[in-house]
Amino acid sequence: MYQRIIIVGNLGRDPEMRFMPSGQAVTNFSVATNRQYTASNGERVKETSWFRVSVWGKQAENVNKFLHRGSKVLIEGRLSPDPNTGGPRVYQRQDGSYGASFEIRANRVVFLTSRAEDESTQGSYTEDAGEEDIPF
Question: Which residues span the domain enclosing 58?
């Protein structure tokens, strides 16, 4: 069996890198993907999906070094289901509502924001979802 997921979105926060006991680097970060459409009643709907991404090895070091909150990326990898449910990780927000995050183990991370764009927009990224909506 084989599965592959490809997403394009923006980092929701700066990457966090750590090292395994073996010395291998692993970097974790969140990516938001946005979708806009017009509902049947004519109302514009904005939809944001959050993904938790982990990347390993040399690629993890590069992600940690060059990406930051707001950077646009293409992620290719596989979904990693919640071991308890077999689906996305479900969590309860501070306001009592429920949300879900999808876990991706990245095989490939493509930087879509140029270094010049990154430097000019660093710190100016704003997302429709508030920081409290990010589950991690």
Answer: 5-133
Beta strands 98-111; 72-79: pairing state: antiparallel
DSSP 117: H
CA distances in angstroms from 111 to 7, 8, 47, 66, 69, listed in the order given:
12, 10, 23, 9, 13
For 69-88, give one letter per residue: b (16+ CB within 10 A) or e: bbbbbebebeeeeeeeeeeb
20: exposed, middle or buried (Cβ count in 10 Å: 0-12, 13-18, 19+) = exposed
Render pLDDT for 12-55 as a digit per residue (tens, 0 to 9): 999 999 999 999 999 999 999 999 999 999 999 999 888 999 99
Task: Sort strands 98-111 and 44-56 into parallel, antiparallel or unpaired.
Answer: parallel
pTM: 0.76
Task: Give CA–CA dist 119/113, Å, rounded.
Answer: 10
Please count the structural domains in the chain: 1
Task: Compute the residue count for the chain.
Answer: 136
Cα–Cα nearest to 91, from 125, 134, 51: 134
Residue 93 is part of a domain; what is its CATH number?
A: 2.40.50.140
